Amino acid sequence: MIDLLPTPWHWANAIGIALVVGAAKTGVPGLGFLAVPWLAWVLAPNSLLSVGALLPLLICADIMAVWLYRKNPAVHHLWALLPWVLIGMACGAGLILSLPRQWFNPAIGGTVVLMILVHLWRQWRGRIEAPGKAVGAGVGIVAGTTTTLANAAGPVMNLYLLAQRLPKEEFIAAGAWFFFVVNLMKVPVYIALGAIGSGAKLMITSQTLLMDASLVPAVVLGSLIGRRVVPYIPQRTFEAVVILLAAAGAVRLLMT
Fold first, then answer.
1. Are 12 and 26 in contact (CB under 8 A)?
2. Rg of the chain over CA atoms, in angstroms?
3. How far, CA to CA in Å, does 98 sit from each of 48, 103, 158?
């Protein structure tokens, strides 16, 4: 852990990341896009290691979100996507092993931009009906691939949920349950990738786990803050923020 966060500057950034992760899961969906490049920057040059280091923080925030929204029966919106997400995760694992890492972020960013443009076009045409099964399958595969590559499925899933016109608390609850299950499934995938890559693709280590354990209080605090903020955000503002944060995340990915 000393090697990963050797100075107060590193610790301050890590605490900020943990707060953002917590708040994004329970109050401001899309805000979590900041955590992905932020942690990669703090842990540079170990950018692949940062993906594995972020996962336990996300799972901690997922647990908080599931608990805080436990009375909301929104999970049924996303279970049908899980088989397709598994296919996407397999694709993402294959890409991690076979492709240069510098290709990942631009590809994810381009996908998110395309989804935003489609959503805005449908909104302009007044056609915001719930996505069909074919769209759901495509979203599931893309989400599974992007979450495995870089923990970056948030914008993809947020746009999918936005198209279903869910009330904001149901929106957050559905995403919370979905990512809780998906992120748990990623743990053995990341461990296996480290073993297959003979250390070159190592993503979860004893050092990253110790660092994550020390940041749990900040994740919990961020989650509680996010939950308190939600009731004060108007529905239209909430939807606009989701789109803007998805766009900002896509631009950031395209630039890296």
1. no
2. 17
3. 14, 11, 28
pLDDT digits (tens, 9 = 90+) for 201-242: 567 888 889 999 999 999 999 999 999 998 888 888 887 887
Which residues, at least 6 apart from 218, have a Cβ–Cβ distance to it below 8 Å? 15, 18, 19, 22
Percent of the chain at pLDDT exceeding 90: 27
Cβ neighbours for 41, distance < 8 A, ≥ 6 positions apart: 13
Taken in order 133, 139, 142, 144, is the CA torsion positive or negative?
negative
Q: Which two tokens mark 93?
A: 């694992």
The alpha carbon dihedral of 41, 61, 233, 109 has a sign of positive
Q: In what helix (H) or strand (E) does residue 256 lie, and over which residues does it extend?
A: none
The closest alpha carbon to 51, from 217, 193, 218, belongs to 193
Is residue 249 a contact partner of residue 112, using CB atoms and an 8 Å limit?
A: yes
Distance from C-alpha of 47 to C-alpha of 49, rounded to nearest angstrom: 5
The pTM of the whole model exceeds 0.90:
no
Do residues 110 and 254 lie in contact, with contact meaning Cβ atoms separated by under 8 Å? yes
Parse the chain into domains and list their residue ranges: 8-254
Which residue in 11, 45, 160 sits closest to 2, CA to CA?
Answer: 11
Output the six-digit token pair for 22. 């917590």
CA-to-CA distance for 85 and 81, rounded, in angstroms? 6
